[in-house]
Amino acid sequence: MRQTFLAGCLCAPLLFSATFQLSAAPVTFNTALPVSKGEGVVRVQAKYLSATDDPGPMSRELTVKALPIVGVWGVTPRWTLFGIVPLLDKTMELDMPSGRSKRNVKGLGDITTMVRYAAYSKDQLGSTVRIAPFAGIEMPTGTDDEQDRFGRLPGSLQLGSGAWNPLIGVVATAQSLEKEWAVSASYKFNNAANNFERGDEARLDLSYHRRVWIGGPTDGLPHFFNAGVESNGVWQGKNRNNGQKDPNSGGTTLYLAPTLQYVTQRAITEVALQLPVMQNLNGNALKQDFIFTLSVRLND
Amino acid sequence: MRKTILLMIMTLLWSAPLLAAGTQYKLRVDGLSCPFCAYGIEKMLIRTEGVESVTVDLEKGLLIVKVEEGVTLTEARLKQLVHDAGFTLRSMSEQPL
Predict the structure, then answer these.
(1) Is residue B15 part of a domain?
(2) Surface of A (69-108) touching B: CB under 8 A
């Protein structure tokens, strides 16, 4: 069940894709995405997670490919709606009594909708500071009863949780033409479905980007090339199976991620490589190797 | 007399494009900090009836908005448009083209 944690680490950042009138915004979390009233932004990400460091006897190797599509809409200058639709492909290889086996599932994951309110904003020449709380809910659109020839897949390999899981958080950003800071804190209350309940999840995400190059057309908006570093602290509680806590689930992971962004007026292309610099997982957990993210954001 | 009338008509016709050149607004906008978000305000303004062009200077936080002849954008209207785009209008000036 600890793979639940890994899958959560991959998918949870996809959930936090709010809007803001801010520029580049972080790569590994989305709470600072910019949009104007009546405007839309679409962000498509391709993520690849690898976890092969298994201290247990089964030599588990997990790969998760995810394609989250994030849609953001500015309802008013302060209120923003967004939805995140994740497409998932999870594969677990492990030693079983019958030999080395592969378990795979692919399809639609749990869709998340959120709303964000820009409670504080202060604009100055070439810079802006914003603080915005947000709230949302993860809906059970992904199946949670997938089976293969070995039987029902464990909860960690299911596409969805089967439960309605609310989340709350707050994001703060400070940006100038040269650099940008963002911090986002959130908590997701996971609920039970089919006798399985993922542990709650708390996140603290930080981001720092700096403009390292400016170019593009001389008669229009310039293009920016940003380099940055982001960190994601993720704590997850223990899962519950039939009401009993799973001692081999949950824990804390801290990622550091170098990032690159190419920013134009119509699109942002960005990459990040999240490396787990600290993994304090409960019990016999499968540890992560990395998460690679390639992302494209488009103005409508 | 005919020549004079003809000359007056020609002068009027020649100067008509100048008279119909419209107005240019210079907006000082706070909060502009990247091309991606600046495009939002550009779109917001260009969709406004009568607006012919919008030019954004990020470094100076300056927007140049050109409108057709006979179109007037009040400060309140521009303030609202800038606000809807997620920014703050610091000041504005206008001059005929």
Answers:
(1) no
(2) 74, 76-77
| Closest chain A CA to residue B43 | A39
Which structural domain, as residue segments, surrounds residue A248? 2-299
- Flag whether B30 is in a domain: yes
Q: Is residue B25 part of a domain?
A: yes
Give pLDDT tens digits for B50-78: 999 999 998 899 999 999 999 999 999 99
Please write the tens of the pLDDT for every residue from A86-108.
Answer: 999 999 999 998 899 999 999 99
Angle, nearest 10°, between helix axes B75-84 and B35-46?
140
Query: Structural domain tally of chain B?
Result: 1
Q: Minimal CA–CA distance to A293: which of A92, A70, A81?
A: A70
Q: Is B68 within the bounds of a domain?
A: yes
Q: Is the C-alpha dihedral spanning B28, B29, B32, B35 positive or negative?
A: negative
pTM for the structure as a whole: 0.83
**Tokens at B13, concatenated:** 């016709």
Chain A nearest CA to B20, separation (Å):
25
CATH number at residue A34: 2.40.160.40
- CA dist A264 and A217 (Å) reads 10
> A34 in contact with B at a CB cutoff of 8 Å?
yes
